[in-house]
Structure formats: C-alpha cells, structure tokens
Amino acid sequence: MSIIVNATTREDKGKGASRRLRREEMVPGIVYGGKSSPESISINFHELTHLLDGEDAFTSVLDLVNGKNKESVVIKDLQRHPAKNIITHIDFLRVDAKHAIVTITPIHFIGEEDNEALRIGGMLNKFVVSIEISCLPKDLPHGIDVDVSGLEIGDHISLTGLTLPHGVVITSLQHGDIEAHDQTVVSVSEAKIIEEEDIEGIEGIDEAGGAEGSEDESSEGDKSEGEEPSHS
C-alpha cells in the first residue's frame, strides 16, 4: 500500500515567506534529485504530523502528489524547532526505480522476552540502533530484524552477522576493509551487581573505624585525667 503525501508548489521563498506559511499551518519543504530541477513545496502541517507519527514514513518510498504530478520520493532530512519540537522544514529526495538509494534504516531487536540469559539477570547491550544501507527502491526494508533470543552471556552479533533482506547491503561494509568496520551491534553481558559480602565488608570497615575512634578518644580522656596535678 503506497503512502501519499499531498504537496503544493510555493513561489515565495525566504524566512519571511516560511513564517507566513507556518502561520497558515503549512510546512515549507523541497524536493530534489533525479533529472528534474529542485522544487519548493509546502505541506499541510497536520497531514505531515500524522504522516510522521509512524516509522513507515521514514522507511518507505512515498508518492509525492502535487496537482497532477506524482513522484516517488523518500524523506531525506527534517528540521525541527529547537523549543517547540515541531517540523519547520522537510527535504524529499526523488528516487528512480532503476537506481539504488542510500538511506538510514532502524534495527528492530526481537526475541528479548524469549532469551533465557536475560531472564536470569543478564544485560542486553544495544550498541547500534540504525544503519546506513543501499538498495533499489523496491527492496527498501522497513527495518532490519535482529533475533537476540538465542544469545547467551558473552555472545554478540556484529554487522556481518546480520541477516539482510534481498538486495540490501550495509554501506560501511563496502569499503574494502570489512574487519575494520565490522562493529558490534548487540551483546549480552552479566549484570553488574554488588555482592552481599562486599557490602558487609564495607560496613565492617566503617564499624571498625568508628570503634577505633572511640577507643582513641577514651584513651586521651584517661591520660588527661591521670596527668591532672594533685593538690595535697
């Protein structure tokens, strides 16, 4: 099922024009790439907000509809207001069915609830949550699934250990020196727990210190009393 984004061409440009658009509940944007020239557009704020509520908008080829024109695009960049957390500008990249695109896709960790090591207190360490991939538009995945259900304490999965959908490659592993770029994605380790005997040892040190201090104070008191001059 295709995701449709309705847009209109905008002629006015600049900060003033963008502010006017936002007052009219429109978000300025641009679509570029391919053989056509870049085009300034605007999108209804509420429609865009609804579109971006789901992850699919970032991992799908979208149909950008502007009047009678329809183009296949992907979201390339978003700008947000630093304080209000609203979209202030959006970039779309045109895609060609015959040419590979480079984009970021999320990693979905599955099977955590079935992992025995995690049930007995192990820790799941997620080092990578998204990766840059390259593929044809038709092969664009909604994410990369990583099954961690069988990992034991001390096990890990690296980039080369991921199961990728057909036609998808990880860009960082295409540079020749695969070993240098083969970073750990996820691992399982023992939980860091302070042993009960360590806590008792610390308490013992505190108690010993307190007793020693009291004994010193008592000795000093006895010494002072013993040295008090007699008045015979």
Polypeptide structure, described:
The protein is α+β, with helices and mostly antiparallel strands. The protein folds into 2 domains: 3-94, Ribosomal Protein L25, Chain P (Beta Barrel), CATH 2.40.240.10; 101-189, Ribosomal protein L25, C-terminal domain (RNA Polymerase Alpha Subunit, Chain A, domain 2). The chain contains 5 helices and 14 strands. It has helices at residues 15-23, 45-51, 116-119, 178-181, 196-226, and strands spanning 3-6, 8-9, 26-32, 39-44, 62-66, 69-80, 87-94, 101-110, 123-126, 130-135, 144-147, 156-158, 169-170, 184-189. The strands form 3 sheets. The protein has a 7-stranded mixed sheet with strand order 1-5-6-7-3-4-2. The chain has a 4-stranded mixed sheet with strand order 11-8-10-13, with no helix packed on it. Strand 5 and strand 6 form a beta hairpin.
What are its keywords?
232 residues; alpha+beta; Ribosomal Protein L25, Chain P; RNA Polymerase Alpha Subunit, Chain A, domain 2; seven-stranded mixed β-sheet; four-stranded mixed β-sheet; 5 helices; 14 strands; disordered C terminus
Computed Rg: 31 Å
Structural class by SSE content: alpha+beta
Q: Which band does the percent of strand residues land in?
A: 25-35%
Tell me the distance between the termini. 111 Å
Provide the CATH top-level class of the largest domain: Mainly Beta
Widest sheet, order of strands: 1-5-6-7-3-4-2
The tally of structural domains comes to 2
Largest sheet: 7 strands, mixed
Measured as a percent range, the helix fraction is: 10-25%
Going by CATH, the architecture of the largest domain would be Beta Barrel
Form type: elongated
Please count the helical segments: 5
Write down the overall mean pLDDT.
Answer: 85
Q: CATH topology of the largest domain, which one?
A: Ribosomal Protein L25, Chain P
- By CATH, the superfamily of the largest domain comes out as Ribosomal Protein L25, Chain P
